[in-house]
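Journal club prep — side note

Before the paper discussion, L.F. wants everyone to see what a predicted structure for a comparable chain looks like in token form. Sequence:
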Amino acid sequence: MAALGCLVPLFLLIAGLVVGGFVANGTGALWGAIIGALLGSAVPAVIFHSLIKARSNRK
């Protein structure tokens, strides 16, 4: 599971690149990759924060 969590930013970056390329060519691919990278970085950060919060509530 940890390995999949590490690959989420990469998968979302590539997905954003592809979808942006289909929608708006070169500029869309760039913006799609940027948005995918931001979302890909935010998802593990939110999950990590919630795991720490759940761990502190367990004590």
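L.F.'s comment for the group: The chain has a mean pLDDT of 87. Keep this in mind when we get to the figures.
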